[in-house]
Specification:
single chain; cytoplasm; five-stranded mixed sheet; alpha/beta; Nucleotidyltransferase, domain 5; tRNA processing; T6A_TsaB; globular; 31% helix; tRNA threonylcarbamoyladenosine biosynthesis protein TsaB
Length: 237
């Protein structure tokens, strides 16, 4: 594929994953580690680098899942990425968790039109509709994802309203469909429910060659939902 060496990490959902692109090969570790991301992510990084005999400063760039996802998970991923990249002065590639699942749909099912929805709790989903486009770069042909419906947080009903305006064959990915939309009739369901760092690497490669990198100091998590109103318990201020 390329002599590029990239490390990808993701903690934005209940999945915790690390993947390495090195000498054209991808290796990865994936766990469901809800509420233990902070304990697992660094040992997983050490393990996958150790297996390849690499040090952090030998990477070309660090890739991370920038959200959307759980507030805590997105913060953990952004903080770890920032700390690692800043420590050895690595450029960073921020990848959408929704786009990572679309990439998984392409690689597993050859799907080129994907409806992505992550359960956002409180009867809402993080949603986008993505369409694959092939682009030719200096090292060959790659896939890029175009937003047909922009990333947003919305109700399941609003998702279906927007999805019903689309034409063609679409595949669904993400926990949002299982949580709220299991009876949807707008697209074919897939078994892909969680993002993985493995597929973030495939998204990141063309971004690297398009110079779509940022510095560690520029890392910003993407929550989509900026304000959350919590019901106060009776008798509590």
């Amino acid at each position: 594929m390329t002599k590029l060496t990239l490390l990808a990490i993701d903690t934005s959902t209940e999945a915790c994953s690390v993947a390495l692109l090195h000498q054209g090969e991808i290796t990865h570790l994936d766990e469901v580690a809800q509420r233990t991301h902070t304990k697992r992510i660094l040992p997983m990084i050490d393990q996958i680098l150790g297996q390849s005999g690499l040090r952090l400063n030998q990477l070309d760039a660090l890739v991370f899942g920038r959200g959307p996802g759980s507030f805590t998970g997105v913060r953990v991923g952004a903080s770890v990425a920032q700390g690692l990249a800043f420590g050895v002065d690595l450029p960073v590639i921020a990848v959408s968790n929704l786009t990572a699942m679309a990439q998984a749909a392409y690689q597993q099912h050859q799907a080129e039109q994907v409806l992505c929805a992550i359960d956002a709790r409180m009867n809402e989903v993080y949603f986008s509709a993505l369409k694959a486009e092939k682009v030719r770069l200096e090292i060959g042909e790659f896939l890029q994802w175009q937003e047909i419906i922009t990333e947003q947080v919305c109700s399941p009903q609003r998702l279906l309203e927007q999805a019903n305006t689309l034409s063609g064959n679409w595949l669904t990915v993400g926990t949002g469909w299982q949580a709220y939309l299991s009876l949807n009739n707008v697209a074919k369901n897939s078994e892909i429910t969680l993002p993985s760092a493995k597929y973030m690497l495939s998204v990141a490669v063309p971004m690297w060659f398009a110079k779509q990198t940022i510095a560690a100091t520029e890392i910003e998590p993407v929550y989509l939902r900026n304000e959350v109103t919590w019901k106060k318990l009776p008798g509590r201020e």
